[in-house]
Automatic annotation (TrEMBL):
It comes from Amycolatopsis antarctica. Residues 21-48 are annotated as: Disordered. The lineage of its organism: Bacteria, Bacillati, Actinomycetota, Actinomycetes, Pseudonocardiales. GO terms for molecular function: hydrolase activity. Keywords: Hydrolase. It comes from the Bacteria. It holds the Pfam family Sortase. The keyword Hydrolase applies. Residues 21-32 have a biased composition (Low complexity). This is Class F sortase. The keyword Hydrolase applies.
């Protein structure tokens, strides 16, 4: 997959700089009075079922992950920087969809990245590592449809050993990747040492 080769740069710049899994922090996690993502469990949404194994292209608008209390206000588009690294969300609570990956529900791995924390604010994917097999991720799309993905596994990788092709490579059906940082925080570099990746497959879709 061409996209996989294009994003094979994993350097994370402190404070939310570049990196394909771009969600570290310039400082260790700390309490903050700023707005943070909800940590309350939210109920899974329902609507009119769509009888389709693959959805047409439609950009993601927002997402929710009931098992870890995530409900975003929006999803922004992330492109590539001049050095080939993935752009990053500019705040802790916004998730970003890599706009050179499929839209959620199309065949292939749709890639969504978010911070684990950012400038002392807990990040939208702070609890990503807690997801277990079967947990659902609901991506609400611009065309009024919603794609529901079931998590198959969550894996941790050292940034130096990030499996680009495994994460970004072609798949036979609609899949989703949620990516954040994890592992130990290296205060000397201002980065987390690892990445956390949740893998999920489309299980159903509906129209609200």
């Amino acid at each position: 997959m061409v996209v996989a080769a294009a994003v094979a740069v994993f350097l994370l710049v402190p404070g939310g700089g570049s990196g394909v899994a771009p969600v570290g922090a310039a400082e260790p996690p700390a309490a903050s009075t700023e707005r943070a993502p909800s940590t309350e469990r939210v109920a899974g949404p329902t609507g009119t079922p769509i009888d389709a194994e693959v959805l047409p292209a439609s950009k993601p608008s927002w997402l929710e992950v009931p098992a870890i209390g995530v409900r975003t206000d929006r999803i922004i588009e992330l492109g590539l920087q001049a050095d080939g690294a993935l752009e990053v969300p500019g705040d802790a609570v916004t998730a970003g969809w890599f706009d050179q990956s499929p839209t959620p529900g199309e065949v292939g791995p749709a890639v969504v990245a978010g911070h684990v924390d950012y400038r002392k604010v807990p990040g939208v994917f702070q609890r990503l590592k807690e997801l277990t097999s079967g947990a659902e991720v609901v991506v609400h799309r611009a065309d009024g449809t919603s794609a529901v993905f079931a998590v198959s596994r969550v894996e941790h990788y050292a940034k130096s050993e990030f499996p680009t092709e495994k994460v970004y490579g072609d798949t036979s059906g609609p899949e989703l990747r949620l990516i954040t940082c994890g592992g130990e925080f290296d205060s000397s570099s201002g980065n987390y040492e690892d990445n956390v990746v949740a893998y999920a497959r489309l299980v159903r879709a509906f129209r609200a």
